[in-house]
Write a structure and sequence with these properties.
The protein has 280 residues and is an alpha+beta fold. It starts with a strand and ends with a strand. The chain has helices spanning 32-37, 42-51, 81-86, 140-143, 159-162, 220-230; strands at residues 2-8, 11-18, 21-24, 56-57, 63-64, 73-77, 96-100, 105-106, 111-113, 121-122, 125-131, 147-154, 157-158, 178-186, 198-203, 206-212, 238-240, 262-267, 271-278. The protein has six helices and 19 strands. It has two domains: 2-64, no CATH class; 73-278, Fumarylacetoacetase-like, C-terminal domain (Fumarylacetoacetate hydrolase, domain 2). The chain is globular and about 55 Å long. The strands form three sheets. Strands 1, 2, 3, 4, 5, 6, 7, 8, 11, 12, 14 and 17 form a twelve-stranded mixed beta sheet that branches. Strands 9-19-18-15-16 form a five-stranded mixed beta sheet, with no helix packed on it.
Length: 280
C-alpha cells in the first residue's frame, strides 16, 4: 500500500494511493506520521480506505513530506563502497551516522533553494526507512519487524558548507534540502529490508547514479540495530540509508545542481521523487 500526506482544503491530511486516485484517511490536519505513531496496521488502513467518502486525482495532489515532523531523521554516510571510494574514504567498519533537522526536510515536487552565492549543491539519491515501532537495543534479527515502510529520498548536500569542518552537520541541514516521498510503500509490498531494488538518479534527464540496494555495506536491519545501541528509536522516525557513487562531488569536472535543474530519484517498486532547483 502507498501512503502519503497531502494538502486537503488548506490542511495536511494522510491519504492512500489507489491507482490514479488519492483517498484521504484519518483526521483533517493529521499526517501519516500521526497514524504510524498510533500503531495503525495495513488492515486498519484498508478499513479506513473502504469507509472513505472522498477521492482526489493523483495528478492534482500537492504532496507534503509523508511524516511532517519525525522525532529523528538519521542518515547513513558512505554506505556504498563505490561512493566511499569516490569520496576518498575507506569503506567504514561501522555505519557512519549523522542527523538531519526537521527544517531540512522537504517534499516531492518542492523547490530546493541553493544558498546565496553557493555553487556546490549536490544530489544523493537514497532509500528512506520509516519506523513503525521503536525501542532501544533492537537485535538485527528482529529489526525488520519494526519497519513500517520505505520511501525515496534525496540527501542533498551543500558541499562548501559540509567541508568547512570535520563534522558534516551544516552542509547536511540547509533548509529544504532533504526531500523525500512522494509516499511511503508499506513493508509488505517490497522485499524484506528493501533489498534488491534498483536505485537511479537523473539530473535533467541524464543518468547520474545507478545501483541496487543490495549493494549497501550495512543493510536496513544492521542500521537499525546499530542506531538503537545508542538511542531509542520511535515510531515515525526516518532513516536515510546512504547514496551510491555518481554524485557531483565525485565527478571530473564536478557536477553540481544549478537553478532551473530538475533532479529525479527513482527506486524500483517504491516510486519517483522529483524536485526543481531554485536560486536563493
Amino acid at each position: 500500500m502507498k501512503l502519503a500526506t497531502i494538502w486537503v482544503d488548506g490542511e495536511p491530511h494522510a491519504a492512500a494511493v489507489q491507482q490514479q486516485r488519492l483517498v484521504p484517511i484519518g483526521r483533517p490536519g493529521g499526517d501519516l506520521g500521526e497514524l504510524v505513531r498510533a500503531g495503525v496496521t495495513v488492515a486498519d488502513i484498508a478499513a479506513l480506505v473502504a469507509g472513505a467518502k472522498r477521492q482526489m486525482p493523483l495528478d492534482a495532489a500537492q504532496f507534503l513530506a509523508p511524516v511532517l515532523r519525525p522525532g529523528k531523521a538519521i542518515c547513513v554516510g558512505l554506505n556504498y563502497a563505490d561512493h566511499a571510494r569516490e569520496s576518498h574514504f575507506e569503506p567504514p567498519a561501522h555505519p557512519t551516522l549523522f542527523l538531519r533537522s526537521t527544517t531540512s526536510l522537504a517534499a516531492h515536487a518542492s523547490a530546493v533553494h541553493r544558498p546565496s552565492g553557493d555553487d556546490s549543491l549536490d544530489f544523493e539519491g537514497e532509500m528512506v526507512v520509516v519506523m513503525g515501532s521503536g525501542g532501544r537495543g533492537i537485535a538485527a534479527e528482529a529489526a525488520l519487524g519494526h519497519v513500517f515502510g520505505y520511501a525515496v529520498g534525496n540527501d542533498i548536500s551543500v558541499r562548501e558548507f559540509q567541508f568547512r569542518s570535520p563534522q558534516w552537520t551544516l552542509g547536511k541541514n540547509v533548509d529544504g534540502t532533504g526531500p523525500w516521498g512522494p509516499w511511503v510503500v508499506t513493508a509488505d509490498e517490497v522485499p524484506a529490508g528493501g533489498t534488491g531494488l534498483q536505485l537511479q538518479t537523473h539530473l535533467n534527464g541524464e543518468l547520474m547514479q545507478s545501483a541496487n540496494t543490495r549493494d549497501m555495506l550495512f543493510d536496513v536491519a544492521t542500521i537499525i540495530a546499530s542506531v538503537s545501541e545508542a538511542m531509542t528509536l520511535e515510531a515515525g522516525d526516518i532513516l536515510f540509508t546512504g547514496t551510491p557513487a555518481g554524485v557531483g562531488l565525485g565527478r571530473t569536472p564536478r557536477r553540481y545542481m544549478q537553478p532551473g535543474d530538475v533532479v529525479q530519484v527513482q527506486i524500483e517498486r517504491i516510486g519517483v521523487l522529483r524536485n526543481t532547483i531554485a536560486g536563493a
